[in-house]
Amino acid sequence: MLPVLGAFVVVLLGFVVHDTGAGQVTPSRVASHGLLLVGLVLLVVVHRRFGRPHLPSSDYSSALARTGMSPAGTGEPVEEPL
Description:
The chain is mainly alpha-helical and 82 residues long. Helix content is 67%, strand content 0%.
């Protein structure tokens, strides 16, 4: 979610800057787009505070092996490493 909203805000910012320079946008319209920027900042804060830590793939595989769970979509149990 974060990369998608971030990319959208960057693209929108480009259009807003261009349209503001050309005098084709009102200040209230720019302010309404500012709500998206506030939403992006809040999303970053929540993601940093409550986001899951990312494990390297070897740690992920080890964790799956310890729990006996299978990787997503395979439906097969993971065998314990020797």
